[in-house]
Amino acid sequence: MGTMRQQRSADTRVKILEAALELFRERGFAESTMREIASRSGVATGLAYYYFESKDAIVLDYYRRALADLGPLLEPAHRSKKLEDRVIALLEAKFAYFEPNRRFLGALMSNAADPASPLSPFSEPSRPIREFDFAQFQRALDETGVSIPNDLAPHLAKILWMYQMGMLLFWIYDRSEGQSRSRQLIKRSIGMVVLLLKLSNLPLLKPARKAILELVAILEG
Amino acid sequence: MGTMRQQRSADTRVKILEAALELFRERGFAESTMREIASRSGVATGLAYYYFESKDAIVLDYYRRALADLGPLLEPAHRSKKLEDRVIALLEAKFAYFEPNRRFLGALMSNAADPASPLSPFSEPSRPIREFDFAQFQRALDETGVSIPNDLAPHLAKILWMYQMGMLLFWIYDRSEGQSRSRQLIKRSIGMVVLLLKLSNLPLLKPARKAILELVAILEG
DNA sequence: ATGTTCAGTTGAACGTGTTCAACTGAAGTA
DNA sequence: TACTTCAGTTGAACACGTTCAACTGAACAT
Known about the structure:
By secondary structure, chain A is mainly α. Chain A has helices at 4-27, 34-40, 45-51, 55-74, 83-98, 102-112, 127-143, 153-173, 180-199, 206-220. In chain A, α5 packs across α8 (153-173), α5 (83-98) packs antiparallel against α9 and α7 crosses α8 (153-173). The N and C termini of chain A lie far apart (47 Å). Chain A binds a DNA duplex through residues 3-6, 8-9, 12, 33-35, 43-47, 49-51, 54-55.
């Protein structure tokens, strides 16, 4: 395989992607134009659209790349045996990985916050990334031996995931030195979240659980 | 006051606003262009920008107008003596008022969902609308005699407001006949929300309350 | 060798939100 | 009445994301 043609094409794609990320880091997402991205890659405007469906699509590619990079980096976090510690370790690993692009991610939020935008973590294009993340928390729940009522099982990983998204969002916007406030927030909240998950196992709460599951059913249509 | 000049000017402003809302209702927000809005008002493109800072600003004006209209319409809802009933009545009054623009509001969400967008209910420009709404729920709490721990008092109205925003959001996207699913959702959830508010008054929960208040403090910076 | 094909590439053009220098005419001034 | 002013108005122009008809040249076929 690998003809010279294909090689050059792949190179061009990477060249464009990297010029774009560079610009995004320098100026933010909205402030970087496709013309600028193309010209910095030494390429015509149209070619950027040959390789990427849209400006948003470039960001989706960045997510994909991050997803791939993150896989191995998350492995050490899974050594923690307490659920609290593990969630914190997962978050710290992500903080470390995204640190260089924190500002750029912040600038992205004006698009990503809209659930209808492809850039949103809730969007259809983001599904693979999202499901990779669900799996992390599913694994954390399994391996730390938190006992879970059958009816709730599929939802608890989602709850942890949403908690993580909240912390990540806070971290992105956190302007305190070294994002210390984010760490403080996590330290003070993780216990509550885990407690809530464990409480859901109490037989006492079965009726409430049923009511909540009914709600979820309506919500999911 | 009221010279002919000023009258004509005010008329022009209204003419533009109404042409815009008409178009938004017909085609949605994103699909309506400023050129079209101007031309339908029989006016040059630039004049729309003389009266409205941006396309978004036209929508903000619509919010403002809705706010003014809604004041008296909400009064009957405040006759309910049970908190549950009153929240439902407030929601139904808003449903009724916004019904003709439900589709247009839906199309707006792709912008309004971003907390950084001026159109978001959480944005700075939306503050007056938001605070008017807070006040409704504050009043509902006061007048239905729900006893509230002092430390939580300022936050409970916000919780009800957020609940309302959630229901409104669901209603906007609700494609079921006459938005019956929204009503179902409200019927099944309002009890839980009110119960939660009342539980917060139990002395038993004081430590949890303190922990949560600390969290809120970190969140608000 | 020569011709064919089509992935890769170009840049002008489109439609958008928005800006701005210039114009108009009613209201105020002498 | 004649002059000044400036709120109200105009439409061409700008920068953007995106599209597209046309061109180029490596890979393959004959």
